[in-house]
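Replying to the earlier thread about multi-chain prediction with a worked example.

Input:
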Amino acid sequence: MAEGEPTEGPITAEMRAAAQALGWEEGLLERAIDWGYSPRTVVSALGTKLAPAQAKSFLDREPLKPDLTWMDAPTEWGVRAEQADADMGLTVGDIMVGSYGEIPDLWTDRTEIARGSNPQLGQEDMGYTIFEKAVVWTDSVADLYERAIRDRWAPATDLGWRSLEALPDEVEKAICQVMTEHSERAYAEASVLGRWLPEISYGFVEMKLFMSSVIYDLARHAEAFRKRALSNGGGLGLQAPTDLIRGASEARTYPELMAYLFVQDSAFLTFFRHAGDIAQNQLERDLYALVASDRERLMEYQVERFEAFLLAMPDRREEQQRYLAKAEVRLAREWNDPAVREPLILLLGGSRENAAAGEAALTALRRRQVEEYLGHLDKAGFIRSRLHSGLAVYLEEPETAPA
Amino acid sequence: MSAAPTTPELDLSWLDLYDDPTSAEPTKKGLTLDAIDIGDYASQEDLPRDMTPRLRGATAREDAHRMGLTYNTKHDVWADQCRSLYEEAVQRQWSSARDIPWDTLKELPDEKERAMCQVATMLAEVEFIAGDVPGQWLPHISGDEFEVGLFLMSQIMDEARHTDVFRKRALANGGGLLQQGAGLGLRNLIEAQDFTEMSVLMHVQAEGFVQSMFRMGELIGPTQADKRIFRMAAQDESRHLAFGVMHLKHVLSETPERREEIHHYLDKAEDRSAGGGSGDVTFPPVFESLCILLGGGKDRFDEGVAKFLLLRRRQVKEYLHRLDVAGLGDRRERLGSALAQYAN
Ligand SMILES: [Fe+2]
Ligand SMILES: [Fe+2]
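Result:
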């Protein structure tokens, strides 16, 4: 049958006209139908305006018979995850069922494979370096991730920006200095954590989900602190000291990074928990409380990960003393930096005239930070052999209250 | 003897740094990044950059450490509207746990459930790298363009949600994960040695191909929950794409001499993979599962194939359109052959 003959069978005149308009070669429609394509499919193909060459390769051959072997991939089938808590919805924890919830101590697949799917041979090595569960994992990561999503907040709209009122010049500048410092600290920590994401293999996907939420939390902290600095007649002050964050970026392994950050994450959490004492208004109280509540999740991860790591790899226990010591030295040094210390003295004292009281209050805050840091280590089952003197000094009982 | 720390005199020099008292005003969208991009704190081309962790506008410390190499010119990383894209990301976060009507999932014919699970398996894989790649670049963004960093951090959160929502879908309706995808092209993204290379391959090409697929989610998704997953994910992808298109546009207008270099990256990516960094949709398990979903069943496979070709055409057409918007309209003439066959 050739083009131009009276229309017969499934090929309509409209189909012929469409094929001709597209420049399809003669006889292609017939060949397609002969091969077994349905007229509906041929009409669809015409509808997609297939170019002649494309049409030829599509229609001028036997209809594709799907292979469908993937349907029988030897993975666990028949999973219907149930919501454990209707308020939380369908959580990552809920889908950790059966084989899909098993986290191997050693993950061996070097490719980008969704854990639990059937490996395709011949895939490229993606270059991950972290394959040991004990290095990154704690069982609460799935829960922490969903809590982070539930508790999210937006700096632009969840803080009462219109409620800000002018403050005494030095007080405003002290706040701006604190904001400048912590905006940088949050941003830099997120940046350092981000750089570790490509190291972590798919075996620990839930942990990476949680770490992604931490990075996003820290982004908003950086954003919110900057916004506060620029919204009430002040501006940005002196950049934050760089000792502490530089040490984090020097870490050669993830456990080192985490042990090192343990010190600052603990110190910052205690700081924001008590930062209501330096807040001058409701906006700042809300901001500090929100930041503290985000940082609670990070610290929970830190403590639990450290505990699990130490249990699984006891031979690496002593080594951790070094990372902690390195961070303590730098933290103590930064605590003595005038631009870190003095704004807090002014804010805690209320004015320059009341600096002595401010200093006493700051010493009490530092003491609390050191105590809670040791408390966090204790919870992780770690005994700090020799706390750095720059922090230990805050634990000594002062004979008399500072004048 | 008092054991309390010694108390030096107050230095207070940090009080003398404020030449430009700044009071940003909230807008009707709250106090946004655009609202605080003012005065001395606004983003600028010519800034004294120092590769330290200092964020734009803070006074530099003389003794600050450098933290490794960062880009030293704004246009190497900048995208106009990155501030508003970040704010939109913060406002439009959603929850895969609570914003997907999981209760509308219903028992599907086995072949359809398997097909949807196969597509979900492939996407749970593809979305994973989309978080790693921005993470890799964060340390190279100068604090003078911190808004770009914030945007990438929001993308990391978005991609975590995409990874988790497709995994949830595979495990929520009596199915499971199936065959690993072909992965072709994914390594392109992590292999990039330059921010613009990364952005054009990931944001514009790979996420563009994924976006064109998500936009056909109404045809692909067999249930209301599936359609909603695609819709919500597409909303996020449109931001990632917008960033990439705006960045490319910025680069091409500020440094037109980079045009051939950028074409060269695309040559490599288009040549290597039919999926162009978005996972290979022509890989049989992915191709077949999409055809089953698009056609409406195994017995309507050939109809699915026709719609699949429509999807491919749409992917390529939209890809070329985005490049055109960014100022790379001449890509049409040199498109890789795997894509060119769909470009008519
Ligand atoms: Fe995505
Ligand atoms: Fe994306």
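The pocket of fe (ii) ion (ligand 2) is lined by residues B 130, 159, 207, 237, 240 (CB under 6 Å).

Feel free to reuse this layout for your own posts.
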